[in-house]
Structure formats: C-alpha cells, structure tokens
Amino acid sequence: MFKDGAASPSDTLPNGMTMLHFPEETVPLVTRSTAQLHSLIRQRADMKDWILLYAKWPEGVLLLLQAGYKAHEYELYAALDFDCESSVCILIETGNVIVGYGELWAATRHPNSKIADLIIQALVDRRKRLQLLAEAHLSVDELSELKIRPDVLIDLQTQQVIQILRAKNIDLSGAIEPYPWSVYEALGHNYTIADRVWEAGFRDVDVPCVRGRTLLMTKRCETGLYFKYILEEAAWLLGKGAQPYRLCENTPALHFVGFAVGLNMPSFPEKDWVLHLLMLPIDSKRLLRRLLLDNTSDACCCARSTGGCRGITIFLRGNYLACNWGIRRTYSHYADQTAQIITWLIVTFDRNPKHFNQLAVDILRFLTFNCIGITHTCNHPWRQMAPDDIAEICHEERRMKEYHSCHGTPNEEEMNSLRETGVVLDEPTSTANPNPNLTELFSDGQALVDQLILGDCGVYLKLFYSV
Questions:
Q1: What one-character-per-residue DSSP string does 153-182 give?
Q2: Which parts of the chain sit beneath pLDDT 50?
Q3: Cα dist from 53 to 23, 50, 186, 401, whole Å
Q4: Cα–Cα distance between 118 and 76 in angstroms, integer?
Q5: Do the beta carbons of residue 79 and residue 87 sit within 8 Å?
Q6: What is the b/e burial string over 125-163, where b = at least 16 CB atoms within 10 angstroms of the residue's CB?
Q7: Which of 107, 140, 165, 422 has its CA 20 to 30 A from that of 457?
Q8: ∠430-435-440 over CA atoms, to 5°?
Q9: pLDDT tens digits for 311-367?
Q10: pLDDT of residue 410
C-alpha cells in the first residue's frame, strides 16, 4: 500500500480515496504506519476515542496502551468482532479489561475456537489469583463454609470471597468481579465449550448461590426456550455431579427442572410440538421420563397434592401456566395436551403399573382441582387459601375416602350431604360405554390413556370442563 509506512495527503488508496478523506487520528490505522502513530502520540493527539478502532491492528493498539491510553471491555468486544487473536491477547495481558460474563458469553459464541480459549484462560487466571488470595487469608473454617477446594476453581462463591477479603483490607487487584455469576450461565447450549470450562477447573456445578439455588434450579424459567435445551442442560449438569434431590425452599432440584420443562413445552406450534418429543435424544427422553415419574415429593400439604407435589404435578403446574399465558384455553385443550404427553410416555417406555397408577391419580386431581377453581397453595402463593378453607377441604376429602372405602350405595341423606360440599354425583360410566365428555377430552389417540391409566385406577368420573 505505502512504502515504509509513510503516507502523504496526495497518496491514493486502492479504492481511490486519499488520506484527506480520513480523520487525522485514523491515518496510521489505514496505512498501518507505526511511525505516523508515534508522531501522533508525540503531538499529544487525543486518541482515547479512537482506540476501539485500533483493536483490528495489534501493533497499533499495543503502542496506544504503552503510551498510557486505557482499554476496556468495548475494545475487547471490538477485537472479537475483528477476529483478531493478537489484539485479544494484548488487551487481556496489558489492558484494563475484566473478563466477565459478557466477555465469556461473546467468546463462546465466536467461530474462532482459539479466541474462546484465550478468554477462558484469562478467566481461569483471574479466578486462580482470587483463589490464592482466599487460601492465604481465610481460615480453614471459612474455606470450608465457602466450599473452596484446591482442586476446584471458585465459581458462584466469588462475590462472597471478595466481600470477606475486602473486610480484611486485602489488595484485590486483578481479581475483582463486579457481580455474582457462574461461568456456566454464560455458555448457552454449547456443551463443547462447557466441557472445556470443566476441564479448566470449574468442576463444582452444585455450589448454591446466595438464595440457596444451584445451577439445576436457576435460569430455567424463561419462556421461549425450547424444552429440549432445558433437558440437555440438566442432563449435562447431572452428568457432572449436580445433586437431583438437593433441597431449596423444601423443593428438590429436579422439581425446578420439571417446572421449567412444563413451562416451555407449549412454545412449539401446536401441530408439531409432539413430534419434538419423539425426536429427542435418548438421554433427554430418559430424563423427561425421570421428571414425570419422579415420586419424590416436596413439602406441599394442600388438598390438591396430598403428601406433597410429585414430578408430574410440578410439570403440570408449569405446563398449565404456559398454556394460559396470553390466551385462555379450555381445560379440554390442556387435558388433551397432557394426555398426549402421557401417551408418549407409555409408548416410548415399558409400562410399570406402580408408576402409572399414581400418575393417574395425580393427573386427575390436578385437572379436577383446576376445573373447579380450587387454588394450590404452592402453585399460587399470591392467591393462597385461608388455613380454615384448606382444613375444610381436607375434612371433606377424608369423608370421601370413607365413602369410597365402604363400597356401598349411599342413601339419600348421604348423597345430599355430599352434594352440599359441591360434589357432583353421577352414575358410574362403564368402560363399554365411555362417557362422551371424557372421550372428547382424550380424543384421537388418547383413548389409549383412558384404557391404560384411568382404567387401572378404576376411576370413572364425569368431568365438566368449561372455558
């Protein structure tokens, strides 16, 4: 372009432009002339607003940094956009750049894997420095409480460690983090990068945040996420040692995942979302089965979930909430979707009566309670029932159990007593003559659910679903 890096106003670029077309501060960048850049620096030209553009020229950005100009995260983002490995390396080593969530997020989505490696290594180096400071200045009890181990890099504990070290007046230069975050929150669904981060030393995926939630319990309630991504991420975390039954708010970690899967499942178009169940990888199918059939219960004690909410109840909570966002659907639509999911579960995996008998009871209770408008104390905390009302429901439930246990035909007095509680009584429907409402509810292939699940329980209900 220009010999010896020298350029004059009359010099012409290959595109026909001359130096007169460019601001003086950018001429060295265009000509790649270190001599001209030195000249501008000696003339005390104000280059602070131009250093971002120089991120595409490693020699130029290095000269500016050596001259005392400061680079920040924006210059690093620019170097990533320019796909300039050398500038990324220079900015990390000599710039005023903190590699945090945003930088890792951008790097792990960059097509150049070498740049991703540079960012990951910079983050590792920062965390190692913080870890060395923690090991040098914190007591054994403090290290134990923060779950800091020499073979595992600090992750979610970063802010807690920084606060303690600051209180001890320790110099934290090169180790500061502005806010708490986990490296795995920045990786999206790139499990190749996640494996590299794991190998780099971030090997504890079960450290709780200040709210007591682990990675399995967080960042999974955004709508618009495909549920298969949630399953893939959860499967990866479980494979790396995340504890599925760790409690937070008296709720197992798997329940958080189940709720998020239910919440995000209807994000597919109605006509083809079931196909995505069939196309799931086998590991994701197994995890979904585990979520739906998980018999571990939480601390819920409301009438809808006697003995606590189980996996299917948690899943249905999320699914029902998502089905009614923006547009209110009929219970028939919601129950039909539920039936298709259970049909998939039966067809895909071997049928075990001990699982499906309980599954049928949980589903019927959930649908019925939603239909008659009885709130769920752990489903709608902003609309909880009064304790007296819950006690009354439990009392009437015990009466119903007593009635069913006698296996006799109630007399008129008993029937009137039941009607007073709001129970609609009807003649039992035989399997030979299925209830038309129930047939419509589980239409098309859903008769399989009626036969396999509802029939197993010996339950024959007349359900009236309305908009």
A1: ---TTHHHHHHHHHHTT---TTT--SS---
A2: 1-10, 15, 223, 379-383, 428-467
A3: 12, 6, 26, 76
A4: 12
A5: yes
A6: ebbeebbebbeeebeeeebeebebeeeebbbbbbebbbe
A7: 422
A8: 145
A9: 998 898 888 877 766 555 566 667 777 777 877 887 777 667 777 777 888 888 888
A10: 66
Dmax of the chain from CA atoms?
Answer: 109
Cα–Cα distance for residue pair 289/98, rounded to 1 Å: 42
DSSP helix/strand/coil, 312? helix
- Looking at residue 437, its amino acid is N
So what's the pLDDT on residue 377? 52
> Token pair for residue 365?
């209770």
Distances (CA, A) of 327 to 221, 313, 322, 324: 19, 22, 10, 6
Q: Which two tokens mark 15? A: 């595109």
Token pair of 264 as six digits? 């995000």
Reported for 441-445, long-range contacts at CB under 8 A and 24+ positions apart, including other chains, are 441/332, 441/335, 441/336, 441/339, 441/465, 442/335, 442/336, 442/339, 443/336, 445/340, 445/343
Per-residue pLDDT, 86: 96
Task: Extract the tokens encoding 76.
Answer: 């690093």
Token pair in block for residue 24: 């003086």
Rounded to whole angstroms, the Cα distance separating 52 from 68 reads 15
Contact 462, 429 (CB under 8 A): yes
CA pair distance 14, 34, nearest whole angstrom = 20
Q: pTM of the prediction? A: 0.75
299 touches 250 (CB < 8 A): yes
Provide the 3-class DSSP secondary structure of residue 299: coil
β-bridge mates for residue 12, sequence order = 18
CB 187 within 8 A of CB 108: yes
Alpha helix locations (H) across 146-248? 158-167, 191-200, 227-239
